[in-house]
Amino acid sequence: MRILITGVAGFIGSRFTEVVLEQAERLGYSELILLDALTYSGRRENLAGVLGDSRVRFVHGSINDGALTDELLQGVHSVVHLAAESHVDRSIAGAAPFFTTNVLGTQQLLESARRGGVERFVHVSTDEVYGSISEGSWREDHILEPNSPYSASKAGSDLAALAYHATFGLHVAVTRCSNNYGPRQFPEKVIPLFVSNLVDGKKVPLYGDGLNVRDWLHVDDHCQGILKVLEGGRAGEVYNIGGGTELTNRELTSRLLSLMGVGEEMIEPVADRLGHDRRYSVDCSKIREELGYAPHVPFEDGLAATVQWYRENEAWWRPLKGL
Ligand SMILES: NC(=O)c1ccc[n+]([C@@H]2O[C@H](COP(=O)([O-])OP(=O)(O)OC[C@H]3O[C@@H](n4cnc5c(N)ncnc54)[C@H](O)[C@@H]3O)[C@@H](O)[C@H]2O)c1
Hints:
Blueprint: E1 2-6, H1 11-22, H2 24-27, E2 31-36, E3 56-60, H3 66-72, E4 78-81, H4 88-93, H5 96-116, E5 120-126, H6 149-168, E6 172-177, E7 179-181, H7 190-199, E8 204-207, E9 213-218, H8 219-232, E10 237-241, E11 245-248, H9 249-259, E12 267-270, H10 285-291, H11 299-312, H12 314-317
Parallel strand pairs: 1-2, 1-4, 2-3, 4-5, 5-6, 6-10, 7-9, 8-12
Antiparallel strand pairs: 9-11
Helix pairs in contact: 1-8, 3-5, 5-6
The chain binds nicotinamide-adenine-dinucleotide.
Nicotinamide-adenine-dinucleotide binds at residues 6-7, 9-13, 35-39, 41-42, 62-64, 82-86, 101, 105, 124, 126, 154, 177, 179-180, 186.
């Protein structure tokens, strides 16, 4: 069987590709087609561990290129779609590429999947599509109230994916995951941004009062969740994936400062992000009960190992700072 994965040169896609390759025999995949447009956040070096494998074919191209996706999706059994514009701050500075890639690109990929007779399509999305919640947690049937251009574009792509199931019978499942952390995350996102600043003796910019709450999940656990949905997710269903580690940004920052051996004087409060969601919280009982998913990486261990990775891999992140 052949699987096509998009967004493979990014943070989560590159790790997911490694995980699929490690388990390819068990999963029944003899061929992996890896598609990525290599935008600023897509790095060929992220694929160093997989490109030499004879089962892998890397294609440098866009999900918005219909002729290409039509060709690539012939004879493909499964699609896992991770390609996206992914950074909220960039979506505030310029929203157009977010709607072009996340909405129109996803629709193009769905269309090619439908025409090509794809049997399984997993669309990887985010808890940010639900908006912000002050108490309790979202279940999958909660209404979508996205607040940033990023989350609005992801919500659009979720709805397109579900419509391709309802209208055309494409076997689509959607995952909505909380904040990921781990190696190879682009140094614009909070953990690698803060660690790389601190390596250089620079302060870390903390938005607003620092009390916005995020649920953190190690990228390996996210990848296991996506695999569970790929293998057993029901068509037309949404599955939340979370870590159960809710922290305010201030708490996260304190842990990073302590792991880096510096004090609170390294925090530089900055004006809050426009439309900044206060709290995200996903209820993960559906994926746990239906598919037996549970996160395995304890947050303290995962965060310490992640900080260590950025300390040891300066050559990876330094050329990307400020891109
Ligand atoms: N990072 C998180 O915390 C998180 C949480 C939940 C969901 N997600 C979702 O997971 C997916 C991956 O996120 P990430 O953090 O790895 O992002 P990332 O920015 O690190 O990677 C995105 C990848 O998509 C590629 N890409 C962008 N536009 C493309 C196009 N038109 N055609 C083909 N490839 C294109 C980029 O080159 C890059 O390799 C996204 O869909 C994101 O919405 C991320």
